[in-house]
Design a protein that fits this description.
Helices cover 37% and strands 21% of the residues. The protein is built from 14 helices and 15 strands. The two termini are 35 Å apart.
Length: 439
């Protein structure tokens, strides 16, 4: 995380603050009687989950289990001094969430628009303009919503089942920004020990979050669509994923849950712009990239000795040898991208009888895909040489070849285009001067 990204987190309503654990060693184990009211003790008890987060402490020579043991001891000592019950802690927490939901309702009532609830939330589509930042923000918001509902449900389920407080998922897994408010009504009717176990399965929670993301990505932002976003998950009946889906879906139509979600969509966009992403799903983006060789080489080079030249302001031209001419150019890259279309615009005038045009994709020197037009001496300008690939993800080189044998010819490649799909921004192409184009 960048320093600026940390400051973004620090200045939100919640606090991603860490403290030096070594400083606590300055305090001994002497028993003290501190002057705390019942309310203050209850207030501390309602926040002890956060004390056990290991990422809250620097220089802590302790495991997650150590932190949970310290948390349990703190809770016991606080409750041993004051006659406060778990349901009372839950009451304080619920009151806090009620206030937050009321604030969101007031913001909605003023404008009746998602951006009225949060200025960073789009008013058109859940994923806004479809940029990678917008889509990863939506994905992060889906995870935060699912995990928050689960944590809120777990706390109530433990009380309803008469169980001692168990380790909640928030204590062992960081939720970016902390838990958001949720309304639980229908989900309370589904409390069982089996359901409790399922709701603590983080793989199942991630699967439900990704189902939600898949349904909302590119969809019009409305409560009606949010209400149906878990309808087509297709989980196996009786699986943890299906149990979690059913519980969360039971309250998906609660209007205040939607308000809490769209508020988080805006918050998550701010995180994404600063490199803060917590997305369990694969979020891929299609890029349309162009290398204009009349401007510069754009990172391309002659791939075989004496097989082409770069002419400034013109592009890649042929190099004449005895009884042959050729233009071979290549481009190397390191990222993992699904290459779907590779295209060159060229002119071709073959003076021989064995001309060919080729577009190729390589991995570690091996040809993975190739589009070959053999023994073609047709004079063409402008022509398009296109290779369509099924998106093989492990590639490292692009190449074009124009050639004629038993004669001389005139060749020019003045533009390359590339369509690829990736879960990361193909920055290395932009760094070499490639630009976006509209297909």
């Amino acid at each position: 995380m960048t320093q600026f990204g940390y400051e973004i987190l620090l200045n939100k309503k919640w606090r991603a603050i860490s403290y030096d654990f070594e400083a606590l060693y300055n305090y001994g184990d002497t028993s003290r009687l501190y002057c705390l009211t019942d309310f203050q003790v209850g207030w501390l008890l309602s926040n002890t989950d956060y004390f056990a987060w290991t990422n809250r402490w620097k220089n802590c020579p302790c495991t997650q289990n150590d932190m949970l043991a310290l948390k349990a001891e703190l809770e016991y000592n606080l409750m041993n001094c004051v006659d406060i019950q778990p349901y009372q802690i839950q009451y304080l927490y619920d009151q806090q969430q009620t206030v937050e939901l009321q604030q969101l309702q007031t913001l909605w009532d003023a404008t009746m628009t998602p951006s009225g609830v949060n200025p960073l939330t789009p008013d058109d589509f859940y994923s806004g303009n479809g940029s990678l930042d917008r889509r990863t923000a939506l994905c992060t918001a889906c995870k935060i919503y699912v995990y928050s509902y689960a944590q809120n449900w777990i706390s109530k389920a433990q009380i309803a089942l008469g169980l001692a407080a168990l380790v909640g998922i928030a204590a062992s897994i960081t939720i970016v920004g902390g838990i958001i408010a949720s309304v639980l009504i229908g989900g309370l009717a589904l409390i069982t020990t089996t359901a409790l176990s399922a709701m603590q399965d983080t793989d199942a929670l991630d699967a439900v979050a990704c189902c939600m993301f898949s349904a909302l990505d590119g969809a019009v932002i409305s409560q009606a669509i949010f209400t149906t976003c878990l309808d087509a998950c297709g989980f196996t009946v009786g699986s943890n994923e299906a149990i979690v889906r059913d519980i969360i879906d039971s309250d998906i139509a609660q209007f205040q849950n939607w308000l809490s979600f769209i508020n988080q969509v805006g918050n998550s966009y701010e995180y994404a712009q600063n490199g803060i992403i917590d997305c369990p799903c694969t979020v891929e983006q299609t890029y349309y990239l162009e290398a204009d060789f009349t401007v510069s080489q754009k990172g391309w080079y002659v791939s075989q000795t004496d097989r082409g030249l770069y002419s400034a302001g013109v592009g890649w031209i042929n190099q004449d040898l005895v009884d042959s001419s050729a233009t071979y150019i290549a481009y190397d890259f390191t990222g993992s991208y699904k290459i779907e279309i590779l295209e060159a615009r060229y002119s071709y005038s073959s003076g021989g009888d064995q001309g060919f045009k080729r577009a190729r994709l390589y991995n570690d020197g091996t040809i993975i895909y190739s589009e070959n037009i053999e023994n073609d001496n047709t004079v063409v300008y402008p022509g398009t040489l296109q290779l369509v690939a099924p998106g093989y993800p492990t590639l490292d080189q692009l190449e074009f070849r124009l050639n004629c044998s038993n004669g001389t010819g005139t060749f020019l490649i003045d533009r390359a285009r590339l369509q690829l799909t990736s879960s990361i921004v193909p920055q290395e192409f932009y760094d070499n001067g490639w630009t976006d184009y509209t297909p």
